Amino acid sequence: MMKIPAALALILFSAGLSTRLPAADQPQAQPPPPATAQAPAAAADPRAALLKLLPAGSKLEDLRPAPIPGIYEFMQGAEISYLTADGKYFFDGSIYDMGTRENLTEDLRSRARSALINAVPESQMVIFSPKNPQYTITVFTDVDCAYCRKLHSEMAELNRLGVRVRYMFFPRSGPNTDSWKKAEVVWCSANRNEALTQAKLGAQLDMSKACSANPVAREYALGQSIGVRGTPAIVTESGEYISGYMPPRELLQQIKDLQLAKR
């Protein structure tokens, strides 16, 4: 170790410094690493502010970016509307891809309708089917609706054309009405297909046959969520919506045209 002159040692000691110098073969002490900068806090989800502007019960997952930058899709069931990212404007309507002329909004609605309906087991429906169906439609029906009755009166022709009909109940008059109670009676009958046919013919039903274990309320709510406003409301297998009555051959052609447009 180097010998430090007494005068220098005194100066170092007075300054509060160590009088010991590191040996040549001893590693130098490393300075402490710089403090790591804290990662910035995650940005708040911009949808949270928009959610406050939407109807009660809306959820974050009901909002997602639309195909147009700065716009969000607001989707509940198969109902779709749009909201600007700053929350200033809310609007209904369809967005089209001008390159393909595709209605992007209606495509999304169709997929949503199909998913919602396919989530319902067929055991919860009243089905009229030919032996070898080529097409399946789901019809939201009202027992007392005149055009629903007309469509049902042509069931044999629909089946002959290869169309399978799955009925779900949508009493337009709402809960606690005669049409609603008739739908419940049909469901609670031993032979639902026959009971529905008789109800649509205007036959007197035994109203005491209503039971609590029926799907009428669920199917009515489902119809509302996919945009049913009148009956018969017809939905194809891929979710396209056909509003109102059509004669069997016209309905079949419409189904084919919609199917072809999807290709």
CATH fold group of the largest domain: Glutaredoxin
Question: What CATH first level of the largest domain would be assigned?
Answer: Alpha Beta
Judging from the principal axes of the Cα atoms, what is the shape? globular
CATH superfamily of the largest domain: Glutaredoxin
**Cα radius of gyration in angstroms:** 35 Å
**Count of runs of 4 or more consecutive helical residues:** 9
Strand portion, in percent? 15-25%
Order of helices and strands: HHEEEEEEHEEHHEHHHEEH
Q: Main beta sheet: strand number and arrangement?
A: 5 strands, mixed
User: Ends: how far apart?
Assistant: 90 Å
Element layout with pairings:
Blueprint: H1 6-14, H2 47-51, E1 63-65, E2 71-76, E3 79-84, E4 90-91, E5 96-97, E6 102-103, H3 104-118, E7 126-128, E8 135-141, H4 146-153, H5 155-160, E9 163-169, H6 178-187, H7 192-200, H8 216-225, E10 233-236, E11 241-243, H9 248-261
Parallel strand pairs: 8-9
Antiparallel strand pairs: 1-2, 2-3, 3-4, 5-6, 7-9, 8-10, 10-11
Helix pairs in contact: 6-7
Q: What does this protein look like?
A:
With 263 residues, the chain is of the alpha+beta class. The protein starts with 5 loop residues before the first helix and ends with a helix. A hairpin with a 2-residue loop joins strand 2 and strand 3. The longest helix has 15 residues, at 104-118. The chain has two domains: 59-105, no CATH class; 121-261, Glutaredoxin (3-Layer(aba) Sandwich). Helix 6 runs antiparallel to helix 7. It contains nine helices and eleven strands. The model is unreliable at 1-26 (pLDDT under 50). Helices cover 33% and strands 17% of the residues.
